[in-house]
């Protein structure tokens, strides 16, 4: 049981930082996932004008800095009005408690849910278009090398799109129960409840809090499932798979040298 010193509810500074940092990290992770999905949608769009906006690294760096500052300003109220009250790290009594609950329900939960739902529908259509393009038989004017490069690019494009689609699905699993919990808590906060009901609500609340961490651990498993290159690199890093050596280049050079020597002798 340790020293029985509740650090999170004993010091106001730790309480403020913890409440701010947890929410700040959640919003940044959601925002970067949404931006990555939007980038894939732009790259797969049929319009050349919109495709030019995709895969711009300088623009992506600026957006990362901009949204980091924006969420810092939006969430800084937790650094000011959160305190340890009656052994709990919570917002100050009065209007702020009501504001913070509504803020969490709308900004922290409903906004990501709506955004990810829209992006999920759009990325699903993008996956369908990519699959349809892979079914198209190449014309005779395309040589074998170009066709191989095109197939590799389409394969990578499909894997990345499916990865983002699965990331959105995992995010919805994490956000939806948490949003329902906040809305339920705001509605039934003043209702009289029996000790048994309070106990069951605490159990469900802890389970939902555990589910919310899927949003952070899920992308690793999604990458393993959807990206074959990531799986190979992971197996090599763990020593479970030997790195394949390419000998075809040396053979090609040897064959080319032998052929050149034969031509010289014939001359």
From TrEMBL:
<keyword id="KW-1133">Transmembrane helix</keyword>
<keyword id="KW-0807">Transducer</keyword>
<feature type="transmembrane region" description="Helical">
    <location>
        <begin position="207"/>
        <end position="230"/>
    </location>
</feature>
<dbReference type="GO" id="GO:0005886">
    <property type="term" value="C:plasma membrane"/>
</dbReference>
<dbReference type="GO" id="GO:0004930">
    <property type="term" value="F:G protein-coupled receptor activity"/>
</dbReference>
<keyword id="KW-0472">Membrane</keyword>
<feature type="transmembrane region" description="Helical">
    <location>
        <begin position="63"/>
        <end position="82"/>
    </location>
</feature>
<protein>
    <recommendedName>
        <fullName>G-protein coupled receptors family 1 profile domain-containing protein</fullName>
    </recommendedName>
</protein>
<feature type="transmembrane region" description="Helical">
    <location>
        <begin position="102"/>
        <end position="124"/>
    </location>
</feature>
<keyword id="KW-0812">Transmembrane</keyword>
<keyword id="KW-0675">Receptor</keyword>
<feature type="transmembrane region" description="Helical">
    <location>
        <begin position="164"/>
        <end position="187"/>
    </location>
</feature>
<keyword id="KW-0297">G-protein coupled receptor</keyword>
């Amino acid at each position: 049981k340790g020293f029985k010193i509740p650090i999170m509810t004993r010091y106001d500074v730790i309480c403020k930082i913890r409440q701010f940092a947890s929410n700040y990290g959640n919003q940044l992770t959601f925002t970067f996932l949404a931006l990555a999905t939007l980038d894939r949608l732009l790259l797969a769009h049929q319009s050349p004008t919109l495709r030019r906006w995709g895969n711009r690294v300088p623009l992506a760096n600026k957006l990362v800095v901009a949204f980091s500052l924006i969420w810092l300003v939006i969430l800084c109220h937790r650094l000011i009005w959160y305190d340890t009250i009656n052994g709990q790290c919570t917002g100050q009594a009065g209007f702020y408690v009501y504001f913070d609950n509504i803020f969490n329900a709308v900004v922290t939960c409903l906004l990501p849910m709506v955004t990810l739902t829209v992006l999920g529908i759009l990325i699903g259509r993008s996956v369908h278009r990519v699959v349809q393009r892979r079914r198209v038989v190449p014309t005779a004017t395309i040589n074998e090398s170009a066709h191989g490069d095109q197939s590799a690019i389409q394969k990578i494009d499909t894997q990345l799109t499916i990865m983002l689609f699965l990331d959105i699905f995992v995010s919805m699993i994490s956000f939806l129960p948490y949003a329902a919990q906040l809305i339920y808590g705001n509605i039934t906060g003043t209702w009289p409840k029996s000790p048994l009901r309070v106990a069951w609500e605490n159990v469900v609340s802890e389970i939902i809090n555990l589910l919310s961490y899927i949003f952070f651990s899920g992308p690793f498993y999604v990458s393993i499932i959807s990206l074959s290159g990531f799986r190979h690199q992971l197996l090599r890093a763990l020593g479970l798979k030997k790195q394949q050596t390419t000998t075809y280049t040396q053979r090609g050079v040897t064959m080319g040298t032998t052929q050149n020597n034969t031509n010289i002798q014939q001359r």
